[in-house]
Structure formats: C-alpha cells, structure tokens
Amino acid sequence: MTHESGTLQPEGVRTMFDRIAPVYDVMNRVMTMGLDRRWRGITARAVVQPGSRVLDACCGTGDLAVACECEGGVVTGLDFSGEMLARARPKSDSIAWIEGDMLALPFADGSFDVVTVGFGVRNVADLRAGLTELRRVLRPGGRMAVLEITQPRGVLKPFFFLWFDRIVPLLGKVLPGGKAYTYLPASVRRFPGAEDLAALIDEVGFDSATFRLFGGSIVALHTATAR
C-alpha cells in the first residue's frame, strides 16, 4: 500500500525489497557506475576499528556489513527483508545476520560501538524514530555512519534527475522484479538534504554530525558521535 504522499507503508517496503533482492547488487553497480563499493569501504573505514562491535542496520545484501568486517569489526547485519538476507548470508559466515526492524531493534541499550546504515534510512517509515533507535543501541562515545543518496546540487543536478527519474526506472523495468525502482526517484525527493539530516542526527542524541559528499554531490556520508 502507498500513502497519499507517495511513500510506501512498511509492509510495502518489505515486499518491494523482497522482490528486487535478486537484482539489487546489479542495480547498485549500474546506478553508481560501480562506485558504491568504494563508498561503502570509505564508510567502514570512517568509523570501524579492529574489535568494534558493529551493527549494520538495513543491511540489505550485506555489502556494507562485509566492508565493516574487513576493517576488523565484529559485525551484526540486520534487515527486515528475508530475501535480502538470503543473499547476504553467503557473503560471510562470521557475520550474525538477523531479520528485524530498524524501528524496533532487538538489542539492549548500548550494545554496539558502531552503527552503520548504507542506502537504507531513506526507506524507514519514521526517520527520526529510526535514528533514535540507532542511538539507543550505541554506547556513549560510539560512532554512527549513514551513507545515503541526497539532494543533488551544482552542475550535476539536471543530470541526476535525468538519471534517477528516467534512466534508472527504465533499467529496472527490464530486470526481473526491477519495476520497484520506479519508487526510487520519489524516495530521494522527499528525503532531507545533507544539512537537514545532519541537524536531525544531532537532535536525537549525537554530537557534531558532519558529512562528506560523493559522486558529484549525489551521495552523502554522515558521521557522528553518540552523546
């Protein structure tokens, strides 16, 4: 089901990601021209140290969780799409893959040293509540990293909208289950810009959220420390 605003209800998001799971990795490479792996590596290096207890929420098919493990993290990957997790599990036997909801994390307060989300918070029904849950399970002084598509700026803005409004949905239509990518442009348009997201992160219990822009400003990496 879809709200009048064009956003999907939680069960609709789950169904959508179950449907696109077989093509998710391929579409990520196509949409980012292969840069998404590099961005995930930068994200992991920004916050993970050897031995860090890491939660990768909305982990999808597990690429960011694996990147965090490569930096020495002891990683838990959580997603509410069973089909996504089915494709994540073969990527690492040592990551704990858990089916669950970022809005109701099944962990005690302060369970992790690091929390990460890669291209996932945009699809959470209540962004503030999701960020608050991440803060709850993070110990004071722990680090959060959020990698997400953001509102474009500068000379690439017209190309961005051509790519995401026209080309990506067209590519999705030719792949099995890929029609769900027609949802992508609307989800990007309603998501807060980089400065607004940084302000919200600070409001829910973090200090001095900062961000870096990648891909000509179409992707932002926000990092912050838990108060």
Can you tell me about this structure?
The protein has 227 residues and is of the alpha/beta class. The protein has one domain (10-226): Vaccinia Virus protein VP39 (Rossmann fold, 3-Layer(aba) Sandwich). It has 9 helices and 7 strands. The longest helix has 17 residues, at 157-173. The protein is globular and about 45 Å long. Residues 1-6 have low confidence and may be disordered.
List the helices and strands and how they pair.
Layout: H1 10-20, H2 24-32, H3 36-47, E1 53-57, H4 63-70, E2 74-79, H5 82-88, E3 96-99, E4 112-118, H6 127-136, E5 138-149, H7 157-173, H8 184-189, H9 194-203, E6 206-214, E7 219-226
Helix pairs in contact: 3-4
Kindly summarize this structure in a few lines:
The chain has helices at 10-20, 24-32, 36-47, 63-70, 82-88, 127-136, 157-173, 184-189, 194-203; strands at 53-57, 74-79, 96-99, 112-118, 138-149, 206-214, 219-226. With 227 residues, it is an alpha/beta fold. The protein has one domain (10-226): Rossmann fold (3-Layer(aba) Sandwich).
Q: Which stretches are poorly predicted, pLDDT < 50 over at least 5 residues? A: 1-6
Report the major sheet: 7 strands, mixed
CATH secondary-structure class: Alpha Beta
**Rg, nearest Å:** 16 Å
Name the helicity range.
Answer: 25-40%
The shape, in one word, is globular
H/E series: HHHEHEHEEHEHHHEE
CATH superfamily: Vaccinia Virus protein VP39
Please state the second-level CATH architecture.
Answer: 3-Layer(aba) Sandwich
Count of DSSP H/I helices: 9
The end-to-end span amounts to 37 Å
What does the average pLDDT come to?
A: 89
